[in-house]
Amino acid sequence: MKFLQLSVLPFLIVILSLNGATLAHPYGDFLHCLSLRISNSSTISKVIYTQNNPSYSSVLNASIHNTRFATPTTPKPYAIITPRKTSHVQSTIYCSKNHGFQLRIRSGGHDVEGVSYVSQVPFVILDLVNFRDVKVDTKNEVAWVQSGATTGELYYGIASKTQTLGFPAGICHTIGIGGHLSGGGFGILGRKYGLAADHVIDAKLVDANGRVLNRKSMGEDLFWAIRGGGGNTFGVVLAWKVKLVPVPPLVTVFTVNKNLEQNATKIFHRWQYIAHKLPNELFTAVWVMKVNSSQVGKKTVQAGFRGMFLGGVDELIPLIQHEFPELGLARENCTQMSWVQSILYFGGLPIQPVDILLNRNALPVSSLKAKTDFVREPMSETGIEGFMNMFLEEEADFAITMIEAFGGRMDEIRENELPYPHRAGILFESTYIVQWTNEADAGTYINWIRRLYSYMASYASKSPREAYYNYKDLDLGTNNIIGYTSYEQASVWGLKYFKNNFKRLVQIKTKVDPMNFFRNEQSIPPL
């Protein structure tokens, strides 16, 4: 293995089990290619992690938020590349393409199907953990944020400069910006301002040919596609320019918990008719889960009615009492806080100190499976009852459904404004999540959530049954792992995520990446 004598590669010793393995081995070729293009030896040791590197496992696992894909049998990358500058990204694309390795791109590692860090064919991970700069310009109310930053790092960057600007992204502060914006990004400011992706005004992308493009040079078609058409599909987006939005210095949050014995079913039934019509400044959600009953040794189901109002408690209480008296909202259910603290509140974290937003390990990790629905017609009381009762089953001990009201600004944006099509007429989105600790039991829990999803078929949107790309679900259909995937095959899952926008996404993919270099189980295929 003569290339190991190169002075820049003392730490890239590759132990290949093949007899007489030489530079001709594609893995050796790939590393040699990278070594020639990243010629600084001190840099290489901080950028390339091979399987025999002592730090390989810690780098791989640092951003895995679904331990279902962190088992001994989970396929592992031949190498993890943690670029520190744009040229490292260009080099990784060039060498992966030339030496037959699939590239998986990871920003925060929250892909619920592990698609950003697992593949069934030989692959390397491009981990954007070092691309995490956040530059906030309060005067122009914009920010440049790199894809490897988390939503929490962006929120903290905004809040450390101003209390009157925010950004309408999700409540989980450890999500990577790259994946979140690539799929849309809905959060507690969504009824007032729409999606996170609705506020992207420029981007920096490296395409399959290694060209560095911005909004002007990539053109409006590609710029449209990257704002909701999915990550690892059109290129590597390194950074995003986002427009910030006004928020009051104080917002009001509330939680009112109701269990089955406290008419949770009837109150939720009523909520469906009201929540999407409330003022845009009021976001509400219902979190459904199993809890202990007041009767010793028994369980019940709790519906937690949660809300965030862009205003004071004195304005909120009469509003709810008039529009939704069934909830019984009282002043003691409410707390006033800053917008950035409300992110922590909804994330189930202490609201002080806010620098917990910078902690990427603040949330526990577990094995999980998720599915989503968009609901356009209110469920019957009987339907809600059957749904709630499924949470009394043993497999639902660590299950939750997060039901978020739509309407407001989401009703005003056209379906084809961005690839994300779930806009006017949606009453609420439901995100079903089940977790487990023993991997041997995975099948039991996955079967439970599939039964829950099957039960909800009568009540969910139809033709297609819509789904949210940011909670990827490979049950909906997949591309071929090797070889060509037809438009018809991909449309089975693609129409659920993107509806009629899927066709335009395929056309753009065909134009910008006709050889399908950027691909995964649910990436847009070229024609």
Please describe what this structure looks like:
The structure is a single chain. By secondary structure, the protein is of the alpha+beta class. The chain contains 17 helices and 18 strands. The strands form four sheets. A seven-stranded antiparallel β-sheet has the order 15-12-14-13-17-18-16. A five-stranded antiparallel β-sheet has the order 5-6-10-8-9. A four-stranded mixed β-sheet has the order 1-2-4-3, with helices on both faces. β5 and β6 form a beta hairpin. α10 packs across α13. The radius of gyration is 24 Å and the shape is globular. The N terminus is likely disordered.
Rough outline = globular
**Average pLDDT metric:** 94
Hey, roughly how much beta strand do the residues contain?
15-25%
User: What count of helical segments does DSSP give?
Assistant: 17
Distance between the termini: 41 Å
Q: How are the strands ordered across the major sheet?
A: 15-12-14-13-17-18-16
Give the proportion of residues in helices: 25-40%
- Radius of gyration, rounded? 24 Å
Spans where pLDDT lies below 50 across 5 or more residues = 1-24
The number of strands is 18
The chain-level structural class is alpha+beta
**Sheet with most strands:** 7 strands, antiparallel
